[in-house]
Amino acid sequence: MSLDVSPQLLAEAERGDIREDEFVETVRTSLPYAYDLIAGLAAELQGGTAEFADNQTPPPTEKERGQLLRALASDAIRGSLERHFGIALAFQNCHRVAAFHPGAQSGATYARFTSPRSQVLNQSPEFRDC
User: Fold this and answer.
1) pTM of the model
2) Listed residue (47, 57, 48, 43) closest to 96, CA to CA
3) How far apart are CA 72 and CA 67, in angstroms?
4) Which residue of 10, 52, 62, 90 sits 20 to 30 Å from the alpha carbon of 112, by its own alpha carbon?
């Protein structure tokens, strides 16, 4: 299961749309490693002058790796986190996530980061099964 959804949030969803801030809170409590990692990247990006901020440190365990994969593989979760933090996310390997400024998706740096060439250059044997 990706998220620990409260009975009241589930009931709200069954009645219609839910508030995105409630969804983001569910993500924060269900996937704390992924949420905190993305929050940290967003803060780093917004506090600096670089075009992007990225994580190159593998998660400490498979549990945390799973959280990151679930967060970034879900369009709903990923999109909500992007809107919540005011960033655009890009993802490589099993842990290298980057935060970009909104609108960067049309720029050269984002295109390089998400290119097949960059993906190939960021491979190593220890990531083979991640």
Assistant:
1) 0.88
2) 57
3) 9
4) 62
